[in-house]
């Protein structure tokens, strides 16, 4: 796609970012509905009596129900993540083309976010492979003649090498989480600058609200109402950023139609003045 004016590039980039946010919300709703549907279907096929029969261990079919819900969640999550990341990449690439100094930080942050996310996912899969058999064995031992130990002992994980691998995976997950956090902050900086140049403050308000939602979520141990408050704040921040990005896209397109110049870009590095004549 060819653009004849820098503001057209900004309009297209902001629109791609807007659609990435919409894809994230729609994907989250679809994932929640799919998990509820699979769980309800499996629950009805197993039968309520199997869950409350007073037997020992995992009721027949419960393991397959858990795995089905995990598979649905993983599948929808991956599809949503790929669509969201692709749209984010298009958006930040175009904004970087419009002004590398102002908006390049957004694409760099997206790269860090992707790398961090991949590291966390890989580490989580490894951790699940180590821990899941031990947890299933522990659940199966509940109600048996042998009293279970809590938490499951390291012996359930196998050899010392398995424990070392588990700890290494946990370390990789921490590194990935830090990279993802740094990337998210850099994306916020890019969005903040975009709103300063073309917006009306909605995107900046959404960033502040999202940060407050994270702070409130960290206090979730206080009450369940705190969790719902954090979720509500996060949802409102998503709506604000979608509306804000739409407004930015429209304004940039109108500026391009009028032939209006782009907002002042970041100044190029200044060169020292020539030496005064002797």
Automatic annotation (TrEMBL):
Q: Which residues cross the membrane?
A: 21-46, 66-90, 110-139, 159-189, 201-219, 225-248
Q: Which intervals carry biased composition (Pro residues)?
A: 261-278
Signal peptide start-end: none
Q: Which UniProt keywords apply?
A: Membrane, Transmembrane, Transmembrane helix
UniProt-listed Pfam families: DUF973
Stretches for region Disordered: 258-278
Domain of life here?
Answer: Archaea
Mind telling me what this protein is named? Uncharacterized protein
Q: Which organism is it from?
A: Conexivisphaera calida
């Amino acid at each position: 796609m060819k653009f004849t004016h820098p503001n057209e590039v900004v309009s297209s980039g902001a629109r791609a970012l807007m659609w990435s946010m919409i894809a994230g919300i729609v994907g989250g709703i679809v994932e929640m509905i799919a998990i509820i549907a699979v769980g309800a279907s499996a629950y009805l096929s197993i039968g309520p009596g199997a869950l409350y029969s007073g037997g020992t261990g995992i009721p027949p079919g419960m393991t397959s129900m858990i795995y089905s819900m995990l598979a649905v969640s993983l599948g929808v999550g991956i599809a949503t993540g790929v669509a969201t990341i692709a749209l984010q990449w298009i958006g930040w690439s175009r904004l970087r083309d419009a002004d590398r100094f102002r908006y390049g930080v957004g694409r760099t942050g997206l790269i860090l976010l992707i790398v961090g996310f991949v590291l966390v996912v890989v580490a989580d899969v490894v951790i699940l492979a180590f821990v899941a058999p031990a947890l299933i064995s522990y659940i199966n031992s509940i109600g048996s003649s042998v009293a279970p130990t809590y938490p499951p002992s390291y012996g359930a994980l196998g050899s010392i090498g398995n424990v070392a691998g588990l700890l290494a995976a946990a370390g990789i997950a921490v590194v990935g989480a830090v990279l993802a956090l740094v990337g998210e902050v850099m994306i916020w900086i890019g969005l903040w600058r975009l709103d300063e140049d073309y917006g009306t403050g909605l995107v900046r308000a959404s960033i502040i609200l999202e940060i407050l939602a994270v702070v409130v979520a960290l206090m979730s141990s206080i009450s369940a109402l705190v969790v719902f408050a954090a979720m509500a704040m996060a949802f409102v921040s998503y709506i604000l950023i979608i509306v804000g990005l739409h407004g930015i896209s429209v304004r940039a397109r109108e500026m391009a139609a009028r032939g209006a110049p782009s907002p002042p870009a970041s100044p190029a590095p200044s060169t020292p003045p020539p030496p005064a004549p002797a």
